[in-house]
Design goal:
- Helix content is 76%, strand content 0%.
- With 654 residues, the chain is mainly alpha-helical.
- The chain has a domain of 78 residues.
- Helix 8 runs parallel beside helix 18.
Length: 654
């Protein structure tokens, strides 16, 4: 996967193109801010501005970092073509939605085909071949439906004229459908907010805060990776981008203190993947769930709290247990303090200096819960973030009006650059996935797949859950989180709802598995990036990541067995109790797999821990109580002998 949802900063190509890209990105950002705050444009015009502008920015970005004259000229021409296509649809919007809504002329069809080709190529360059390939496969399926075998795949076929119309104009579906509207009005403003966090130093502060919390533990940089990646991943919109950014620092540090390269890469991959399930933003997926289900944003956020806690507490326990088993102790490594610490600055002072982070994020959460207007709330929070940060800079580093003015302009430009370019990359891939989603809906495949899954399961809910889990992992392979969730929600969630699974539980089930496809072999894009940074074996890293990400694979089934974990028909106390038992259950499984707790576990203790884990994860409270009893018994046995052998701690290398 190439620079997936990442941000390039190299200027190897022409400086003039870099400047042009910056200006276009600034105008693109201002247009979105104006629309989200005023709703001045009709929906169709805003969507083509969003998608067409995104394609143009992507091509300008490629031209800016291309050294060869031929490649640079090609991508400049493609950027101009994207501008021309966007202008045509923008200008003809009224006629397209009135006189030519069902009878497009030849020019409309040519423009629609050109927009499709441009977006497919832009997605291929920024996200690799997987996204574009499945969109093309969907189009071929739509056209050749009458040639498919009878049953699940068969449909009457779609003529070429209608097929092109479904991709964008005149129906304003596909590239310009509801997903593009969600991307333009919700996802893009959050990309701007995330860019502002980077520009105002909040990301560096998160790294330092993570070191304060976990850096002095035995697992040291592994805990820093978990905490920082979780915090940053929830707003980045891409687990792969998070691995590439934070992993470049944390993976070498984990290796230095003694963790194997494969384990270090797996920790970073799993931690970054978990950021996509962490509230309040959940890697932008929270707003996708709202858009697809109609469930209020506040309910989505509350439902995600305990699953995210289980996921990260388990991961923190797992890396600590590995450090104990291998005799590692990073707490004594002074070099970590030099690289991740803050020079001995008191925590209160560091938090006070970054008050803009707490004020803006607090305001954002409050506004989201109060208004459910995600796009507008994120822009307001960004405004507060930049204003408070600018006031801090003026108060602490006054250098005269001219210097302060230049600094503020630079701050806004950095935010617009990062947010505009990153948002355009996300916009392109969401638009391309929109083509597949609409084709599958028009052909009836999504509905037939739900019926097929129900028939395959024979009315058995648990068999259906297994089938749905494998389907979600398969459909999510190689896709960014947002695109993977959209696709699997269309495929798997309706079947679960038909068998009585609560709507929110069904969507969390498919969302978790779609998200975990990023660490599931054979594709495992997060593990691929992490393994490259760690100079480790890809498949070894992937299989370790699956074990470290165990709660992500178990929790979706618990959402059905124990929907109370999501707060469904349960108070806070009972939700916390069920979540605590689930956490203890997956910890018991990890102890069995690791073969170590306070000391190496015996075969008797392993035999006791397996039913303990099963009991803790079982829907019955009596089974869970028995599981707790067995776990406590094993811990007591371990503690009794550990007290005697503690002075002889193993110093084995990993």
């Amino acid at each position: 996967m190439r620079k997936a949802a990442g941000y390039f900063t190299d200027e190897e190509g022409s400086p003039a193109i870099v400047v042009a890209l910056g200006l276009v990105a600034l105008l693109y950002v201002l247009a979105h801010i104006g629309q989200v705050l005023t709703y001045a444009l009709p929906s169709g015009q805003f969507k083509i501005l969003h998608v067409g502008g995104a394609a143009a920015i992507v091509f300008l970005g490629i031209a800016a970092r291309t050294v060869g004259v031929g490649g640079r000229a090609l991508h400049l021409a493609l950027a101009l073509a994207a501008f021309a296509v966007a202008f045509y649809i923008f200008d003809q919007h009224q006629l397209l939605t009135t006189k030519r809504s069902f009878v497009p002329n030849v020019a409309d069809q040519v423009v629609a085909a050109a927009l499709l080709a441009l977006c497919l190529y832009a997605a291929l360059r920024e996200w690799g071949w997987v996204v574009s390939l499945i969109a093309v496969a969907g189009l071929l399926y739509g056209y050749f439906g009458q040639s498919m075998p009878e049953g699940l795949l068969y449909h009457g076929g779609i003529t070429l004229r209608r097929l092109i119309g479904y991709t964008s104009i005149p129906y304003f579906t596909g590239l310009l459908g509801s997903l593009a509207e969600l991307s333009a009005g919700t996802i893009f403003p959050f990309m701007l907010f995330a860019a502002a966090l980077y520009a105002t130093g909040c990301v560096d502060f998160i790294m330092k805060l993570a070191y304060r919390v976990g850096g002095k533990s035995r697992a040291g940089p592994a805990q820093v990776a978990i905490i920082s990646s979780g915090l940053m991943g929830m707003v980045s919109g891409s687990s792969v981008a998070n691995v590439a950014s934070t992993g470049a620092l944390t993976i070498p540090l984990m290796k230095r203190v003694g963790f194997r390269p494969e384990f270090a890469g797996a920790v970073e991959a799993v931690a970054s993947t978990g950021g996509q399930i962490t509230p309040p933003v959940m890697g932008l997926a929270a707003f996708l769930i709202v858009g697809l289900t109609g469930i209020p944003y506040g309910e989505i956020v509350i439902a995600a709290v305990f699953p995210a806690l289980i996921y990260y507490l388990y991961l923190m326990f797992a890396v600590h247990l590995r450090a104990v088993k291998r005799g590692l102790d990073a707490s004594a490594d002074n070099a970590l303090a030099e690289e991740l610490g803050d020079g001995g600055e008191p925590l209160w002072k560091s938090c006070l200096l970054h008050a803009h982070f707490f004020i803006a994020t607090g305001f954002l959460i409050w506004r989201l819960l109060e208004t459910n207007l995600a796009g507008r709330s994120s822009l307001e929070a960004m405004g507060i973030l930049l204003t408070v940060y600018a006031a801090r800079e003026i108060a602490l580093t006054w250098r005269g009006p001219a210097e302060i003015g230049r600094g503020l302009v630079a701050l806004l430009c950095r935010t617009a650059w990062r947010g505009g370019v990153g948002g355009a990359q996300i916009a392109v891939v969401v638009a391309v996935i929109g083509v597949l989603v609409d084709i599958l809906s028009v052909t009836g495949f999504a509905q037939k797949l739900s019926f097929f899954m129900l028939e395959l399961a024979g009315g058995s809910l648990w068999l259906l859950l297994v089938v749905a889990a494998f389907a979600c992992l398969a459909f999510g392979l190689g896709l960014p989180t947002s695109a993977a969730y959209i696709l699997v929600a269309l495929m798997g969630a309706p079947a679960l709802v038909q068998l009585g699974v609560p709507l929110i539980a069904a969507h969390f089930f498919v969302f978790f598995f779609a998200n975990l496809s990023a660490i599931t072999p054979p594709v495992a894009v997060c593990c691929l990036v992490a393994a490259k940074i760690a100079k480790a074996g890809f498949f070894q890293t992937s299989f370790i990541a699956v074990r470290l990400g165990l709660p992500g694979f178990v929790l979706p089934f618990l959402f059905v067995a124990h929907p109370e974990i999501l707060g469904v028909d349960a108070g806070l106390g009972y939700t916390a109790l069920v979540s605590a038992m689930a956490l203890l259950g997956v910890i018991a499984v990890n102890v069995v797999l690791e073969g170590h707790l306070l000391r190496p576990i015996s075969w008797i203790e392993r035999a006791l821990l397996l039913p303990a884990a099963l009991g803790l994860l079982h829907p019955s409270l009596w089974a869970s109580a028995a599981g707790i009893g067995l776990f406590v018994l094993v811990f007591a046995l371990q503690y009794a002998t550990w007290r005697k052998t503690q002075p002889a701690q193993s110093g084995a290398a990993p």
